[in-house]
Amino acid sequence: MPGLVVGLSTATVFIGAFMPWFTVRAPFVGELSKSGTEGDGVITLILAVVAAVALFRWFNGSRTTGVATTFSIIGVLVTGIAIFDLVDATNRASDLSAKTDGLAQATPGAGLLVTLVGGIGLVLGAILAYNAAPVSEPPAAEAEGRPDDDTQ
Predict the structure, then answer these.
(1) Model pTM greater than 0.85?
(2) Burial class, 47, CB count within 10 angstroms (exposed 0-12 / middle 13-18 / buried 19+)
(3) Residue 70 confidence (pLDDT)
(4) If 16 and its partner were Cys, which of 2, 102, 110, 114 is the partner (CB 3.0–4.6 Å)?
(5) What are the start-end ranges of the H helices in 60-109?
(6) pLDDT of residue 8
């Protein structure tokens, strides 16, 4: 289950990077969009590739807390970038509308929201991965407080 959640979330972040992150509509100009790959979407795209590599390791038997930690770090970074850019895009949209007396309308693009959903999904997938990762126990000799040495 963690692999499925992380896989779908990684694909969502990857796709979101290529979608519009900011759109402006103005009379006589039409609609202009800025995709994620023209800005911070490049970072989220790279993070999605790193998450895909970690996911490959997860599916090949490396179900460790280290891989789960990778998922969580990437999820937090992607979510943080998406929230930062969403707030920035909303502020810029308000400024543009005020400067043009409402003639130009700007909105955060769908790609930004898709990226945010993917980032949150990665965090949730990381939580599931932590719960699915086996807990390693110390060797019996360490647990008893004596050295692991057979030469005695």
Answers:
(1) no
(2) buried
(3) 94
(4) 114
(5) 65-99
(6) 97
Do 78 and 111 touch, CB atoms closer than 8 A?
no
Closest to 22 in 3D by CA, of 117, 97, 108, 116: 108
Distance CA 37, CA 58 (A): 28
Query: Which residues make beta-bridge pairs with 22?
Result: 34, 108
Question: Which of 114, 117, 115, 98 is CA-nearest to residue 106?
Answer: 98
Measured CA distances, 49 to 12, 44, 86, 127 (Å): 12, 9, 22, 20
Structure-token pair, residue 93? 């949209």
pLDDT tens-digit readout, 28-44? 888 888 999 999 999 99
Does the pLDDT at position 98 exceed 90?
Answer: no
What gap in Å lies between CA 151 and CA 37, rounded to an integer? 61
Q: What is the pLDDT of residue 92?
A: 84
